[in-house]
Specification:
Chain A: Keywords: DNA-directed RNA polymerase, Nucleus, Transcription. Chain A has 297 residues and is of the alpha+beta class. Chain A contains 7 helices and 17 strands. Classes of the chains: A alpha+beta (297), B alpha+beta (113).
C-alpha cells in the first residue's frame, strides 16, 4: 500500500485495530524507507523520548509503562523476565522412601515446582558434568514425614483431620539442611520454600516420605520449572460499538508498552526487572567479547 | 573464521566464496528471538546496512543464523559490533531510567496503592 502524505504519520506511529484484524503491526521506520525522514539510530533522540512511569508497586507485583522504545526490545525484556532470570530451584530429588500413593516421578515433579526462597546472587552455577554439589552451588533440603493414627481421636469420627496425624504434607514440612559453611553464611536468612501452604501429598497411617532435594541455580530455558515471574504486556482494552464502527478508527501508539510483573515471591518485582535488563546487557557483552577475541587473532 | 578459543563455539561466521566481506552470515549459539529480534532492530537502524535478518534454523536447536549485508564494502562485523554496543547502551539507559523512577516512586510514595 503506497503511503500517502496524510497516511505516513499514521503508518509510522500507530497500530490500527480493524474490525477483523490488526494492521500496520511491523516497525517500518528504518533508514531509507521514507524519503524525507532521517530514521538512523540517534541516541539523543531515544533518550529524549524514552520514559518509564511506575503505576503500581507492592511487594509481589508491579505495573509500569515504558514509552518510546521499540517492540523488539520490549519483547526481549518480556522473554527474559519469563524465562531467563536465574533462580534457585530443586533439580535432583533423592527418594529414600516413598510409600505414599503418589508415584515417585509425580512427587519429584511437584517438588521441583515449589519456589525456594534463596537469593541466586549468593550462589554459583553448577558446572555441567559435575555430579556432586558443593556448598557454593547447592542447597540441600529434606522432607521426612510419617503419617500415623491419632490415638486421641473419638471412635466414630470420620474426619481425616481428627483421625490421622501428619496426613497432609505441606511445603512447610521441607527443612533446610546446611552443608559446608552455609550455616554460618546464611545464619540470619532462612532458606526454604517461599510459601508454607503448598500441598505436596496426602498420606495415610503407615505411609512415609523420606526425601532429600538438591537445589541449584538455573534459568527457565534449561530448568523449565524455574519460572520466576508471570508477566503480561497488554495494551488496555478499547471498547467498540457496532453502530460506530464505520465512523471510528482505533489505533494504538506503537511504542507505548504497559508491563505488569508478578513475582513468585523469591525476588521482588523491581529486582526482577533490573536483573532482566542486566541479562540482556550480558548477552550483548558475550558476543562483543567473542568478536574482539576473534579480531585479535 | 570461527569463534575459537573455547571448547564450545559461541559465534561463527559463514561466508560464501567469492563474495565480499560485506555479506556474511553469523551463527550465534545458545540464542533465540530474545537477542535475535532486538539485535536485528538495532542493526537495521544503521544506514550502512542494506539487509539484516535472522532465522532460527530448527526449534530444537538453540542457535540462530544472523545475516548482514552492507552497502559500500564495509565489513559485516562492523555493523554487528556497533549494533551490539548500541543495544547494550539502550539497556543501560533503560536500567538507569528505571532505577531513577523507582527512587522517585519510593520518595513520593504515591504509587504504593
Amino acid at each position: 500500500m503506497a503511503a500517502r502524505m496524510e497516511n505516513v504519520e499514521e503508518i509510522r506511529n500507530r497500530v490500527i485495530l480493524g474490525e477483523f484484524g490488526v494492521t500496520n503491526v511491523h516497525t517500518t521506520d528504518f533508514p531509507g524507507n521514507y524519503p524525507g525522514y532521517d530514521d538512523t539510530w540517534n541516541v539523543e533522540k531515544f533518550q529524549k523520548n524514552f520514559r518509564i512511569d511506575v503505576v503500581h508497586l507492592d511487594e509481589n507485583s508491579m505495573e509500569f509503562d515504558m514509552v518510546g522504545i521499540d517492540a523488539a526490545i520490549a519483547n526481549a525484556f518480556r522473554r527474559i523476565l519469563l524465562a531467563e532470570v536465574p533462580t534457585m530451584a530443586t533439580e535432583k530429588v533423592f527418594i529414600y522412601s516413598n510409600t505414599s500413593i503418589v508415584q515417585d516421578e509425580v512427587l519429584a515433579h511437584r517438588l521441583g515446582l515449589i519456589p525456594i526462597k534463596a537469593d541466586p546472587h549468593l550462589f554459583e552455577y553448577r558446572n555441567t558434568g559435575k555430579e556432586e554439589g558443593s556448598e557454593i552451588d547447592t542447597i540441600q533440603l529434606q522432607l521426612k514425614i510419617k503419617c500415623s493414627r491419632n490415638p486421641r481421636a473419638s471412635k466414630d469420627s470420620s474426619d481425616p483431620r481428627e483421625l490421622y496425624l501428619n496426613h497432609m504434607v505441606y511445603s512447610k514440612d521441607i527443612k533446610w539442611v546446611p552443608i559446608g559453611n552455609q550455616a554460618d553464611v546464611f545464619a540470619d536468612c532462612c532458606i526454604g520454600p517461599v510459601h508454607d501452604d503448598i500441598l505436596i501429598a496426602q498420606l495415610r497411617p503407615g505411609q512415609e516420605l523420606d526425601i532429600v532435594m538438591h537445589c541449584v541455580k538455573g534459568i527457565g530455558t534449561k530448568v523449565a520449572k524455574v519460572v520466576n515471574s508471570r508477566l503480561d504486556t497488554c495494551s488496555r482494552e478499547v471498547l467498540r460499538h457496532s453502530d460506530l464502527k464505520n465512523v471510528v478508527k482505533l489505533g494504538r501508539v506503537r511504542d507505548h508498552f504497559i508491563f505488569t510483573v508478578e513475582s513468585t515471591g523469591i525476588l521482588p518485582p523491581d529486582v526482577l526487572v533490573t536483573e532482566a535488563i542486566k541479562v540482556l546487557v550480558a548477552k550483548c557483552q558475550r558476543f562483543l567479547n567473542e568478536l574482539d577475541s576473534t579480531a585479535m587473532e | 573464521m570461527a569463534g575459537e578459543g573455547e571448547k564450545k563455539a559461541v559465534l561463527e561466521m559463514v561466508q560464501a566464496d567469492g563474495a565480499d566481506e560485506g555479506c556474511v552470515t553469523f551463527v550465534l549459539h545458545d540464542e533465540d528471538h530474545t537477542l535475535g529480534n532486538s539485535l536485528r532492530y538495532m542493526i537495521m537502524k544503521n544506514a550502512d546496512v542494506e539487509f539484516c535478518g535472522y532465522t532460527i534454523t530448527h526449534p530444537s536447536e538453540s542457535k540462530i543464523n544472523f545475516r548482514i549485508q552492507t552497502r559500500g564494502g564495509i565489513p559485516a562485523a562492523e555493523p554487528l559490533r556497533r549494533g551490539l554496543n548500541e543495544l547494550s547502551d539502550v539497556c543501560q539507559h533503560v536500567l538507569n531510567t528505571f532505577q531513577v523512577s523507582m527512587c522517585d516512586c519510593s520518595v513520593h510514595n504515591m504509587c504504593l496503592t
